[in-house]
Amino acid sequence: MSRSIFAALFLTASGVAFSAAAQSWVQVEALPDLRTAEERARAYSSALKDVNGFRLRSGWYALTLGPYSVAEAQSKLRELRGAGIIPRDSYISDNGPYRQRFWPIGAGATNIAPATPVQPAPDTTAPEAIPTPVVPAAPVDLDETPREARASEALLSRDQKKELQVAMQWFGFYNSAIDGSFGRGTRGSMAEWQKNNGYEVTGILTTKQRKVLMDNYTSALAALGLGQVNEVKAGIEITMPIGLVEFDKYEYPFVQYREKDGSGIEALLISQPGDENTLFGLYEIMQTLEIVPLEGERSKGRRSFTLTGQGDDIHSYTYARAEGGYVKGFTLVYPPAKAADMARVIEIMQDSMVITEGTLTPDLSDAAAQGVDLLSGLDVRKPALSRSGFYVDGRGHVLTTAEAVASCGRITLDDTYEATVKATGNGLALLEPSTSLVPLNYARFTTSIGRLRAPVAVAGYSYEGALDAPTLTYGTLEDLKGLGGEAELSRLDLDALPGDVGGPVLDMTGAVSGMLVDHDLTGKALPSAVRFSLKASELATFLSENGITAAASEDTAQLDAEDIVVLGTDMTVLVGCWE
């Protein structure tokens, strides 16, 4: 502090006081330039009330607290100086030294008229020893000592402390409860934040550091454009990144938001009437959509579910719950590069979602615009190739063609169960389910060579999964060998489709006489009804070589057509090859 300020201090310490009506100030600092003084005033104002700034006669700039009565000033001085919140050389002053006011900004550059000193009243208390003030050489660093930081921190409200925890959580430094209590976890998070931002690691944020943290947090939120959406038609109130998405359309059961300004972010609000059964039906359906990649954690609770998807091009998060006769929730779709920011957005969306009255209802007039590749206007995930196969034992092993599963990144059975290739050979592939399956029925192979012109049936997914069950296509056994004399093949007269390939060929006793296969006759265009079957003996040999005992059929009586349908349906499987 300046020597003129020290003179005022001396008068106060010598017992010169002011009338109760006079204005008294607690002067905390004097600084050499206006810019530094304003920065320091701003720092003090974040923790203290009544901060003022005045220009002094000496050209320096004083920071004060007040105005107070003399008694109030003395009490404030003892309280704040004892707590370490203000410097030890702070003191009480009258209006005399102060000229133009520069803080608070906009308060007006008014002069303060000096007060007239009067005879002091007797003071029975011992005067507090005040050290000789020291003029700061270059007071440009606004940081505080740990003691000063802790003291200014103590002035924060509980809500302000919670805001600091939220900000640290946003940047990934804090993962505990938002409770406004600065315990070991919060201190550790503060220390980690300080370390990552180049500050001295103390575990106590200074006034300046708190401001930097909150400014960064505010900027991050502003960049995401988070705002509350009250979707009356869907009955949902939620905070979401409205700066990154914009409303597109209603398509039951979704309110669809498309990306805004190339953000790469999309969102859905889910709204439909229903209960837990509806909820878990939605759980299964959502997993068929392209916006929910296959990789990622899935979880179901009693009244809610969560789906996460992590693909090379997109990530997504879906949350929905059943409440009050409604099923409501949201999906957020975003590029993998934005996963860290979106993780915080997801927390905010989930915590803020409120279910209100009302729900979307289906528009039946739009049914004609829907197709097997769409669900409510969204692309349904489809395999690169779909063919047929059939169970060959009670443990769920499936036989299909090797071509059906060549170069697959993933194989599914009936679009539900994962499977892997256990063995290949002779154009065949043996698939093993990833989870234990107990099929309704499996193949029993014929032991006879067959009778020419006898009726046969192929069970297969002719339309490659467009129908939920296999189709039976009837025809006749035309020859016991292929067109080129291949002994392992039989020739059929049967109008099958590519999706039927890999399906079982049944005789009228229900025994499997072979598997429908593609037979490459290079350069030959055959009539559409000419098809080929790999004989049961070839299938049995392949299975035996790979640890599966082929069951032989002992039935000789012919079955009714209805029984053939049931038998073929129960053993036939849709084999999906995914990229």
From TrEMBL:
Which Gene3D superfamilies does UniProt cross-reference here? 2.40.10.120, PGBD-like superfamily/PGBD
What Pfam families would the database entry show? Answer: PG_binding_1, Trypsin_2
Spans through the membrane: none
Domain Peptidoglycan binding-like: where? 160-213
Signal peptide coordinates: 1-19
Sorted alphabetically, the keyword list is:
Signal
Does Nucleotidyltransferase count among this protein's keywords?
Answer: no
Does the keyword Signal feature in the UniProt annotation?
yes
Q: What is the protein's given name?
A: Trypsin-like peptidase
User: What species is this protein from?
Assistant: Litoreibacter halocynthiae
